[in-house]
Design goal:
globular, 5 helices, 0% strand
Length: 150
């Protein structure tokens, strides 16, 4: 039996990855807005760079979905329904927020790796390559955030 993914499995999983990216964007921006304390400036600047990168990534992922013939989610409710990451529901102390964002970026790197392997198996090399880049971005983001924790 051929274990290759059906062509529609990758776009469906990519929708979830898009939703998680959108949730992480919102959480990162929330940390940026609410950072305070001795490490304020470093966290403020780092999270600004990260949410700007995530904003571009959301667009790239959505456009890849469209290239695959799928509709991108259009509402926040759709995004939250597809996401595996939890949205932030409160302002966290800056150190806690940084720890949360680092963990979310580690989870995103792992999810991107799993989906990249699925895309490769489905012979979807463009999606595979995009996700390999996302692995690098999320690994680096996690490392930079963790470095703020000491």
């Amino acid at each position: 039996m051929d274990m290759a993914l059906k062509n529609d499995d990758v776009p469906a999983k990519l929708k979830g990855f898009l939703a998680d990216t959108y949730v992480l964007l919102a959480k990162t921006q929330g940390c940026h807005w609410n950072a305070r304390g001795g490490n304020f400036f470093g966290v403020h600047k780092l999270t600004e760079e990260q949410y700007e990168e995530l904003f571009k990534a959301v667009d790239e992922i959505a456009e890849r979905l469209r290239a695959l013939g799928e509709e991108a989610p259009v509402s926040l409710a759709d995004m939250l329904g597809l996401a595996s990451l939890d949205e932030a529901k409160e302002v966290h102390a800056t150190e806690d927020a940084v720890r949360l964002l680092a963990g979310d970026n580690r989870a995103m790197a792992a999810r991107a790796k799993e989906l990249a392997l699925d895309a490769d198996e489905a012979d979807d090399l463009a999606t595979h390559d995009m996700l390999v880049k996302r692995i690098e971005v999320h690994d680096k983001a996690a490392w930079l955030l963790e470095s703020h924790l000491g």
